[in-house]
Amino acid sequence: MAPKSQAQTQPQVGKRKPTKSSSLHRTVRLDGERIPSSSAPSRMTRMDPLTAFSKSVTTVSTVNKINASQSQGQKFKGKGKAKIQEYESENSGEDGQAAGFLWVDKYEPMTEAQLAVHARKVEDVRRWFDEAFEGGPSGKLTKYRRILVLTGPSGTGKTATVRVLAKEMGFEIMEWKNTIGEAQNFFSQESNTSDYEGLFTKFEAFLARASTCHNIFASSSAQKSKNRRIILLEDLPNILHSKTQTQFHEALHALVSAQSANPVPVVIIISDSGLRGEATDERRAEAGGWGWGKDKTQIIDVRTVLPKDLLGGQFVTEISFNPIAPTLLRKALQAMLSIHFSRSSASAPSKEVLDTIVESANGDIRSAIMALQFACIIEFPGRGKKRLGEQRIVLEAVTRREQSLALFHLLGKVLYNKRMGDPPSASASAKDLQKERDIDAALKPSVKLPVHLHQHDRRASRVNVESLYADSPIDTSLFSLYIHQNYTQFCNEVEESEDLADWLSWIDASGGDMWYQANPHQFHLLTLGTLHSLPSPVPRRSQKYYKPEFFGFLQKEKDAWDSVCATRDWLIDDLLSRDGSGWRAGGWTKNDVVLEVGGVLKAQDAIQNSKYARPPPPVHKLFSQMTFTRTGNTVRASQLDERDDFQADQQLGLDRDLDMVSPSSIYKMAEEKGGWLESDDIDEF
Amino acid sequence: MSLWVDQYRPRSLDALSYHHGLSERLKALAASGDFPHMLFYGPSGAGKKTRISCTLKQLFGSGVEKLKIDQRVFLSPSKRKIEINIVQSNYHIEITPSEAGNYDRVVIQELLKEIAQTQQVDMGAKQRFKVVIINEADSLSRDAQAALRRTMEKYMSNMRIILCANSTSRLIAPIKSRCLLMRVAAPSEDEMLAVLQSVARRVGFDLPPEAGTKIVEDSNGNLRKALLVLEALKMQSPDLTGPLSIAKPDWEVYCHKVADLIVSEQSPARVMEVRTKFYELLSHCIPPTVILKTVAERVVDKVDESLKADIMHWAAFYEVRMRNGNKKIYHLEAWVVKVMSLYKQFFYNIDMSEFD
Questions:
Q1: How far is CA B24 from the centre of its chain?
Q2: pLDDT tens digits for A377-401?
């Protein structure tokens, strides 16, 4: 099967000059540079700042040396466009070099129809590009469409969408790559070691040149595209380094504020990387001690990549990609298989294999394709049912992603507290029942406890804490907040709540002040404690999961603290303004202000004519006024949806210190304020 | 115009209207030339800070009254900026390190080192040392206290520390032993009444004795609170006659109602409701310890004698956890659920005994 698979990578060219073209591929790749090749047609140029501008001559000569002639390369480039047809092309006599190609590259989508991304998302991105180049319906939006940020988990087709649209709409992509092959260039030219440029300097130069200059090496197709270009930033500079981050932000600012008649839009692609169970603690440990703030910047997300004023501003549009829906994923995989095996003698993998892959890919099409290729390569021993079982085991081991449990299901597993021998739920299908029986069969019944411990007797739990820990999409702290928000619905009596609340309290207080004293078993304790405390079976009364209210109130508290400070400043300023009476000026601590001044402030507000030169700041109501209302049992928290992810909450900040305003919460606010509408440009003119 | 509490605050040791023995001793101490580190402790509103400032004036003369407020920025180990307001004169500096949250140690160390390493440059100064006043010393973290202990010995030559705390129980022993302890007890009711009346006289009105007594009773030995209440009342009804209703602060009323919620029903749904109330209190900046204490006191008032000890025990228990933990709400809630469960079982047991 392997020799067959490379057949499609080399179209007609490969047939004619097999050795040379493949050697071109290899060499260029090792050079850290991908001259338009298998994955991209000629219009797309990947730019290495080193070679694209300052030292471009060298590169060309290198290529020349390796390749027989430049014209050969050109020829090849020209043929690259034939890629779409290559699927159908019949090839034979290929050499072994191309066997290394992955299906991910080989079957990269070429048209919108091949994209597995939801059509509406593609439409969003397309509209943005349209507006960026043409200015939208009013023709004036060009000005605002400067930066497009594509976010989403990895393998959701962000880059592919941009590439496909580049092809369809006819624009050129200039991509920044952090070069590591730099040293190589050093040694090849001993002369100019003095003009060493830092990577970031190069990046800035790249941005500046890419947004102003035209590519002189552009082939004829570039003229067709009417000089439409975009800058693609996927391989970002090291923005975890705070200085580089600042510089990067400045560069973006400069880019956006530059007045140009024909600005080059920038596309930034950021893959969300989730957090795992213990991730926060680890990061804290790396940051050394209290890791305040630092643990925030250790994550590359849209908030660290973009300065916050830009993020909320009118120049930046953010489009977030969702994990690819199983139906779309399956369709795409099937299409790929039918192409691949149309000419192959080997048989396509069975439907079960495909099912397993789709199930475990978790919306990541890249990993799904990888798994599929893998599944087609290995030969499973055995026959029939046994073979199928083994296949499944191997595939699960290969395709299993670490975060395969949605938050919604994680909560469900813990809070429903299923135990061995639970009566099956009414809605359970036969398959579910079988599954439950299988689990029960694998469980060991719990040991009978002595009489004095009988209140701790529980049937064996169906929940596997270890696998939950491995699969948990959130860290323990956030998990405990979710449990805390939701547990009361699952308790019948206050006694069950008592145990659970005590567990939460104990886990929160366990461990010491320092990061290295943190309790490493929090997740297990929390899960086991919760399972132990909840009634069994848990009553079913269509409970809904809610997101923790904690963060909302935390934000309120921060605002209130600001108002306390304002009020205290008012008290102190009032004293200092009167000469010689600034006696107790520092004496008002925040707590004094909160607990004791309220009455006076209230009375002051009640009478209109103020005896003070300056009236107290009206924000004092944030802490001084409280009206007790019986809200009953209405829950104001927003409901957790199965499709929700935890990111939004994560970004609200899990601060160890509640007194301090977390930077991310400010971003959050800024985000809410900056809602620019499509019609904004009308006011502008 | 500032608040009466600030405006009519005594400026010198002689002007203090109660604890005369203490004033004499402080005066003697200031005159002796050998001034120790000091720790003033006592309930809030008893006059600790007033006495500290009077002592300072005795030590340095009226120069200490020329205050300025600086905003200082400190860097935490993880390079986070901490902004702190610092009140200072040429002779002293006053800080509330608890405002730095977890980073009080950094603030204490930086600041003390800086002060200790600069000599008094004013040749006319009466004393060679500078004074550092640390407010709310009982909320200093262990770390910060440990940092303080070394500094206190090392820089004794040009710096004195005056700590101000509500109780000494949260201070580590080495600090207590390095300080001269000064207990400022709450004033008696008569003393408070006298102060209220003298303030009223200086403002220019007569305080009816009934009103005065009522305010004093309500304020529970907290003179600052009494004066604030007096001012608020005067604003509401300028003649201060007739039946006065002293409104409790909103947060206190709120806490009491929460306590009523706990006693009236015990169910998971009620836990949920109480939680929302606690969130509300916390988001109004009411310190969690105060919330727990106020609610617990109210609950204890309402339950059977045999339950009181248990309820207070658990309040103390969860208060400790709250200090160690991060999310205050867990511990407040754990206590509530505990109380609910105790209360419920108490009634359950009564019923059982009746059946027997």
A1: 25
A2: 766 555 555 666 666 666 666 655 5
Q: Longest C-alpha distance within chain B, in Å? A: 86
Residue B350's CB is within 10 A of a number of other CB atoms, namely 10
Q: At what angle do helices A663-673 and A550-577 cross, to 10 degrees?
A: 100
Residue A361 tokens, joined: 């890919």
Question: Which among B3, B80, B287 has CB closest to A591?
Answer: B287
Q: Is residue A343 within 8 Å of residue A4, measured between CB atoms? A: yes
Q: How far apart are CA A664 and CA A296, in angstroms?
A: 8
- Amino acid making up residue A3: P
Rounded mean pLDDT of B80-106?
A: 80
Residues A140/A681, Cβ–Cβ less than 8 Å: yes
How distant is the Cα of B32 from the closest Cα of chain A, in angstroms?
A: 24
Q: Calculate the average pLDDT of chain B.
A: 85
Handedness of CA A52, A57, A58, A62 (dihedral sign): positive
Q: Which of B335, B337, B347 to mutate to test the interface with A (most CBs of A within 10 A)?
A: B337
Q: Helix, strand or coil for residue B19?
A: coil
d(CA B110, CA B86): 13
CA distances from B332 to A39, B258, B266 (A): 60, 12, 16
B284 closest CA partner among A551, A595, A653, A592: A595
CB-based contact B6:A581 (threshold 8 Å)? yes
- C-alpha B154/C-alpha B167 separation (Å) is 26
Angle at CA of residue B306, ends B300 and B312, nearest 5°: 40
Question: Strand ranges (DSSP E) for chain B?
Answer: 38-41, 68-75, 81-88, 92-95, 130-134, 159-165, 180-183
Tokens representing A575 are: 């004293």
Of A6, A8, A28, nearest in space to A83 by CA: A8
**Could you give the count of Cα atoms lying within 13 Å of B97 in the half-sphere of its Cβ?**
29
Least confident residue range of A126-130, A296-300, A541-545, B200-204: A296-300
A295 SS3 class: helix
Within 8 A of B250 by CB-CB distance, chain A residues are 598, 602, 624-627
Residues in chain A with CB shorter than 8 Å from the CB of B322 are: 509
The answer to whether A487 and A497 have CB atoms below 8 angstroms apart is: yes
Query: How far is Cα A276 from Cα A477, in angstroms, rounded to an integer?
Result: 11
Estimate the share of chain A in helix, then strand, then coil, as percent rounded to the nearest 5. Answer: 55, 5, 40
Angle between helices A407-415 and A522-533 (to 10 degrees): 50
Find out whether the peptide bond into A18 is cis, omega within 30 degrees of 0: no
Token reading at B244: 């006065």
pLDDT of B291 reads: 93
Highest mean pLDDT among A182-186, A621-625, A641-645, B290-294: B290-294
For testing the chain A interface, which of B5, B6, B281, B286 should be mutated: the one with the most A CBs within 10 Å? B6
Which residues, listed in sequence order, are joined to residue B163 by a DSSP beta bridge?
Answer: B39, B134
**Which tokens hold the place of B81?**
């900026």
Instruction: Give the pairing type, strands B159-165 and B180-183.
Output: unpaired
Is the pLDDT at B149 greater than 50, yes or no? yes
Please check whether residue A200 is in contact with residue A247, taking contact to mean a CB–CB distance below 8 angstroms.
yes
Q: Is A497 on the interface with B (CB under 8 A)?
A: yes
Of A573, A579, A586, A623, give the one whose Cα is nearest residue A601.
A623
